[in-house]
Design a protein that fits this description.
By secondary structure, the protein is of the alpha+beta class. It has helices at residues 3-15, 36-39, 41-57, 80-90, 108-122, 126-134, 155-161, 184-189, 216-230, 236-250, 308-320; strands spanning 24-31, 67-74, 98-106, 136-142, 166-171, 174-177, 206-208, 211-215, 255-262, 265-280, 285-287, 291-294, 300-304, 329-332, 336-340, 345-349, 352-356, 363-367, 372-377, 387-388.
């Protein structure tokens, strides 16, 4: 399957979906053409079969759109998806019955970049925000290794969404803000090598559209991304085992203060050393390629400091979500976390990692107001944190 095949297939699918009846559509596919779903022969052939299978379902259906223009745009480097999304948004002229559809075709990184670009552009003005909320809709296709922040865990599952009864919704994000900036000198003073953290220059705030985390899960993502840069593929499960044995040596958990809020109301303060603190846009979220981090409505989990043997023995529970029913973690629903900590630690947002230093704290993770417009199935079993229109 080529990116051009995908562009034509998406155009065919949306042209017959009743949600777009009478719409003049401007379709943009922002594709990471180096993603495994395009470049790995077996995956590409499998995706072409899936595309043909889904297109077969709508064969013979009447076109309901008024018109469609389509364009394929390829990403060329890290961060390019963010720039492209903002550029597309800046070219949108609000008109009745006109809608810009942006398809992010890559892995979680591509999806994160495109959504971050739209979010940052929306935050520049009220008029921009209205365009992102009403005149642009994003669809997230999984063509990488993680695929937790996309509209379906598999390529075929995601494409099938476009054949279903759908509605528009405005999705929230997690915004991570810091109190101070990190310097290379500060990193060196803490005994860390600045060269190991290539994105130190990427300044906060940072955004997540699925799950953000501080601690062990971020360490796993960091090591996974390192390995993937050398040897493309899915190394997450191997790195989970590696991190279980090595995380506490690299980043020894120390006492932290974690304030948990519901709106402006402080619900609880935790004073504890923790292995992992995760915060989802909503409950029922996965990360690490389908690992059930939030199998219930709760969207916050704090795993307190554990000895290595306990971590090894209980590892499976964090893969299937059964840790929720144990004393391994405290879980709850929240809209904001404020974390105070005096030591180096890694954070991750949809698989992209950043090094946090004592200068950054306190760190705030909070749900934004509904902004980016997405497609949701009418038969969605549980809330994904978006506001239906």
């Amino acid at each position: 399957m080529t990116p051009q095949d995908l562009l034509k297939g998406i155009e065919n699918l949306i042209s017959v979906n009743p949600l777009f009846t009478g719409k003049d559509l401007n379709l943009f596919v922002i594709a990471n053409e180096k993603a495994g779903g395009f470049t790995q022969t077996k995956e590409s052939e499998k995706n072409q079969v899936s595309l043909d299978k889904v297109l077969k379902q709508v064969e013979g259906k009447e076109t309901v759109t008024a018109s469609i223009t389509s364009e394929l745009v390829g990403t060329e480097r890290a961060g390019h998806g963010e720039e492209l999304a903002a550029k597309i948004a800046a070219g949108v002229q609000p008109e009745k019955n006109r809608l810009t559809v942006i398809v992010a075709a890559g892995g979680d990184g591509t999806s994160l970049e495109v959504q971050t670009g739209l979010t940052k552009w929306a935050n520049e003005s009220e008029s921009n925000k209205k365009i992102v909320q009403n005149d642009i809709v994003i669809f997230r296709l999984p063509l990488g290794t993680g695929n937790d922040g996309t509209d379906g865990h598999t390529f075929e599952e995601s494409l099938n969404v476009l054949t279903m009864s759908l509605h528009f919704a405005n999705a929230r994000a997690i915004k991570l803000s810091v109190s101070g900036e990190v310097t290379e000198e500060g990193i060196k003073e803490a005994g860390k090598n600045p060269a190991d953290y290539g994105n130190v220059e990427v300044k906060a705030p940072w955004y997540s559209f699925n799950v953000a985390g501080i601690g062990l899960d971020a360490f796993v993502c960091w090591k996974t991304n390192e390995e993937k840069a050398k040897h493309p593929g899915n190394h997450y499960s191997i790195m989970v085992d590696f991190a279980t044995l090595n995380y506490n040596k690299a980043f020894p958990p120390e006492d932290a203060e974690i304030k948990i809020y519901d709106g402006d109301e402080l619900k609880e303060t935790l004073n504890t050393a923790f292995e992992m603190l995760t915060f989802g846009v909503s409950g029922h979220r996965t990360f690490g390629g389908g690992k059930q981090i939030f199998p219930v409505d709760d969207n916050v989990a704090c795993v307190c400091k554990l000895d290595v043997m306990t971590m090894v023995m209980q590892n499976k529970k964090f893969n299937d979500g059964s840790y929720i029913k144990t004393e391994l973690a405290k879980t709850c629903k929240a809209t904001k976390l404020v974390v105070n900590y005096d030591h180096p630690v890694l954070c991750e947002l949809d698989g992209e990692t950043h090094l946090l230093m004592k200068e950054n704290f306190p760190v705030t993770l909070e749900l934004t107001e509904p902004c980016i417009q997405v497609l949701e199935r009418d038969d969605l079993e549980w809330s994904r944190g978006a506001e239906r229109k």
